[in-house]
Amino acid sequence: RIFELMQELQKLQRENVKQEVKNYDFSTLNGKSNLLDFFEDKDKFLVIHNMGQGCRYCTLWGDGINSFLPHLESVISVILVSKDSPKEQRKFANDRNWNFKMASHNGKEYMKDQVSDENYDNAPGAVLYQIKNNKIYRKNDCAFGPGDIYCSMWSLLNLAGISDNDWTPQFSYWKRPEKLDDGGKNII
User: Fold this and answer.
1) Looking at the 3D structure of the chain, how many domains does it have?
2) What InterPro entries does the entry give (predicted)?
């Protein structure tokens, strides 16, 4: 039954009517950029809304999507946006081994207008845009949250009977051993 419901959702997403949006500005490590720039040579463009380096949950989605980024980029352009500065974004992405193109919305109008959850002005999710005749259209969007279909971790935990109330993602799972063979000096 779940498979059939997913097929129905996919059909609705394909048939969804597009809504024209403006060409929002962003900050990148290379300076100012805009939505049109991010399409590159593709006609579809996925913007991943990330709350920034302060959200462990957003990091979980970033880790998962990064693992199949080459597959996505074979058919659509992809960028991860957050409120963090481009320099902060790149440092965090490098620490996570993320390969995303990144941009900062700087907490400005893009996120306020395009966020998937109207109750928040900086909520995680994604928006798929299309370009036609140099106009940008919002095709589909989704919100990210524990238990959703966009992070396979939740489905795998559900198989084990572990709910999102029982587990919270962490930035790192390394635990300091009681005794360090190197003497344990200068640990950060």
Assistant:
1) 1
2) DUF899_thioredox (IPR010296), Thioredoxin-like_sf (IPR036249)
Please report how the helices 56-67 and 152-159 are oriented relative to each other, as an axis angle in degrees rounded to 10. 100
Q: Give the pLDDT confidence of 86-119 residue by residue, as tens digits.
A: 999 999 999 999 999 999 998 888 988 887 667 7
> Whole-angstrom distance between the N-terminal and C-terminal Cα of the chain?
49
What is the rounded CA–CA span in Å between residue 6 and residue 123?
Answer: 24
Q: Is residue 4 part of a domain?
A: no
Query: Interhelix angle for 86-96 vs 56-67, to 10°?
Result: 60
Question: In this structure, is the dihedral angle defined by the CA atoms of residues 37, 38, 40 and 42, taken in order, positive or negative?
Answer: negative
CATH number reported for the structural domain that contains residue 59 in this entry: 3.40.30.10
Q: What is the pLDDT of residue 117?
A: 66
Q: Under 8 Å CB-to-CB from 23, ≥6 apart: which residues?
A: 34, 35, 36, 136
CA distance 100 to 109: 22
Write out pLDDT tens, residues 153-173.
Answer: 898 998 899 988 999 999 888
Q: With residue 45 as reference, give the H or E element that holds it.
A: strand 44-49
In a domain, residue 177? The reply is: no
What residues contact 161, with CB distance under 8 A and at least 6 apart? none
Q: Supply the DSSP string of 66-87, one letter for each residue.
A: HHTHHHHHTTSEEEEEESS-HH
Q: What is the dihedral of CA 148, 173, 99, 150, to 10 degrees?
A: -10
